């Protein structure tokens, strides 16, 4: 890929990492496992005011950026395969949050988009 395209990839990586940083700054409960902690509460500020799954929303441009910066078409192809798995995880995670996190249903009514504002 041309150098300017690689630079675009690096900017996407920076955007994604920044988004993830903002997620952890806003929500100390963010974790790799799908579970609700005893003292967990709804976070509806920062990136959570825009989409319900901001960490995943930030991870997608970061992963795309890594592949683009490295000039890896295979990486972009793998990312296309990751999206269905990520979609399944988001749906599963939201079912757990609806069941186990008080107030999540109200939060869903306020913040409509899961991953991409106005799309899904």
Attribute tags:
4 helices; mainly alpha; single chain; 120 residues
Description:
By secondary structure, the chain is mainly alpha-helical. It has one domain. It contains 4 helices and no strands. Helix 2 runs antiparallel to helix 3. The chain starts with a helix and ends in a 10-residue tail after the last helix. The model has no long low-confidence stretch (mean pLDDT 92).
What is the topology?
Layout: H1 3-26, H2 54-69, H3 73-100, H4 104-110
Helix pairs in contact: 1-2, 2-3
What's the order of the H and E elements? HHHH
**What number of structural domains do the residues give?**
1
**Secondary structure category:** mainly alpha
Overall radius of gyration:
16 Å
Strand content: under 5%
Name the shape in a single word: elongated
Helical element count? 4
Q: Report the span from N to C terminus.
A: 31 Å
Low-confidence spans:
none
**Sheet with the most strands?**
none
Helix residue percentage: 55-70%
The number of E-state strands comes to 0
- Whole-number mean pLDDT: 92
């Amino acid at each position: 890929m041309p150098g300017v395209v690689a630079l675009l990839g690096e900017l996407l990586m920076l955007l994604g990492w920044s988004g993830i940083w903002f997620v952890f700054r806003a929500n100390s409960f963010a974790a790799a496992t799908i579970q609700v902690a005893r003292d967990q509460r709804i976070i509806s500020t920062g990136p959570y005011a825009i989409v319900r799954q901001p960490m995943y929303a930030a991870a997608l441009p970061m992963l795309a950026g890594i592949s683009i910066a490295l000039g890896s078409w295979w990486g972009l192809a793998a990312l296309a395969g990751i999206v269905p798995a990520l979609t399944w995880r988001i749906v599963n995670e939201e079912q757990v949050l609806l069941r186990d996190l008080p107030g999540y249903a109200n939060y869903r009514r306020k913040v409509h988009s899961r991953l991409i504002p106005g799309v899904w």
